[in-house]
Amino acid sequence: MMDTMAAVVYTAPEEMTYVPEYRSTQQDRDDDVLLRIESVGICGSDMHAYHGKDPRRKPGLILGHEFCGEIVEGSRQGQLVTGNPLITCGKCDFCLQGRDNLCTDRDMIGMTRLGAFAQFMAIPERCLIDAPNDMNPNHIALTEPAATVIHAVDLAINGLNQPINECRVMVIGAGAIGLLTALLLKSYGVKMQVLETNLSRHLCVKEHVGIDPTNPLTESINDNSFDVVIDCVGSKKTSSLSFKTIKAGGVIVNVGLQNWTSEIDIRKLTLQEIKLIGCYTYTMKDFKSALKAIEEGRFGNLSWISELPLSDANLAFKKLHNGTMASAKVILKPHK
Ligand SMILES: [Zn+2]
Ligand SMILES: [Zn+2]
Asked: Which ligand sits nearest to residue 106's alpha carbon?
């Protein structure tokens, strides 16, 4: 690790502190590679930590796990990369089955290890994926949320008895995950409805997905009308809405986790053979597919991303917290 670097430390609930000369005490692993962070996204889970609601992410930590960096040492110096923040063991049954997101012995960048809200970050080489050196670092940093979306949509596809482009799909939430889900579904030619209560996000969905989002607080949604529901919010309200609006034989994929308990309509689930599928992060395979899909423009031109210097992190978190940030993804730049 560098002697000192600029970094943003989560110091207390609702407090992100910019430290111009941060000194890391983290023990490097033998397989660590040092990256110069070019771009790093603020994730919903970082927000969760910021609110003091994630017992796994404690004050004193550098958050951030959606990054693009450049290798700064060794034979691959200068290579632009992104990386899987889940550092899995590679040996357990889940890892051997290719379900490495369920690894029983894993570390995570921005949780059990220092994250990417910093000028430099160390990560094991095997977590890295090379990106084309001429690709926009902000787009590369979107690989992690895009991988979550690829994983979620694949879970839906695998649970269906008909092709997804013949289905009516509802996406709940138009934050980064919901928006990326809608964009990916659009590339499959899927007919969908997007629900979003924050009206400042409606314009972006209209412009980039090409459909008018629905505000579930003021507009009604028909019961039993969707073959697939992808819940990118995961609140008690959205879970019950998912069960109301899903058709018999339909598939609900739960991605968001705003509330840790919800009521499940076990009667409808049973009598109408609803599939309720939990979705957690991504496998290494999803991660690679996500970068390729971004490169191929499957998620559109991504012009809705907004960018701020790392030193403005506290402001960015505040704006996200009080709902005055219209952009679905804020990328921080540690060297600007
Ligand atoms: Zn994330
Ligand atoms: Zn494992």
From this structure: 2
Measured between its terminal Cα atoms, the distance across the chain in Å is: 20
Q: Which CATH number fits domain 148-278: 3.30.420.140, 3.90.1010.10, 3.40.50.300, 3.40.50.720?
A: 3.40.50.720
**The pairing of beta strand 128-130 with beta strand 191-195:** unpaired
Residues whose CB is under 5 A from ligand 1 (ion)? 43, 66
d(CA 146, CA 152): 10
Q: Which ligand is nearest to the CA of 43?
A: 1
CA–centroid distance, 43 to ligand 1, in Å, is: 4
Q: 214 with 205: CB under 8 angstroms? A: no
- pLDDT given at position 59: 93
pLDDT value of position 25:
87
Using the mean position of ligand 1's atoms as its centre, give its distance from the Cα of residue 172 in Å: 17
Mean pLDDT of 307-321: 96
Percent of the chain with pLDDT over 70: 100
Q: Which ligand is nearest to the CA of 96?
A: 2
Counting ligands in written order, the one closest to the CA of 97 is: 2
Return the pLDDT at 204: 95
pLDDT tens digits for 71-97?
Answer: 999 999 999 999 999 999 999 999 999
DSSP string, 164-224: GGGSEEEEE--SHHHHHHHHHHHHTT-EEEEE-S-GGGHHHHHHHH-SPPB-TTTS---TT
pLDDT of 1 above 80: no
**Is the CATH number of domain 5-142+302-333 3.40.50.1000?**
no
| Ligand in closest contact with the CA of 100 | 2
pTM across the whole model: 0.95
Q: Taking the domains of the chain in order of start, what are their residue ranges?
A: 5-142+302-333, 148-278
- Tell me how far the alpha carbon of residue 325 lies from the centroid of ligand 1, in angstroms: 17
Average pLDDT, the chain: 95
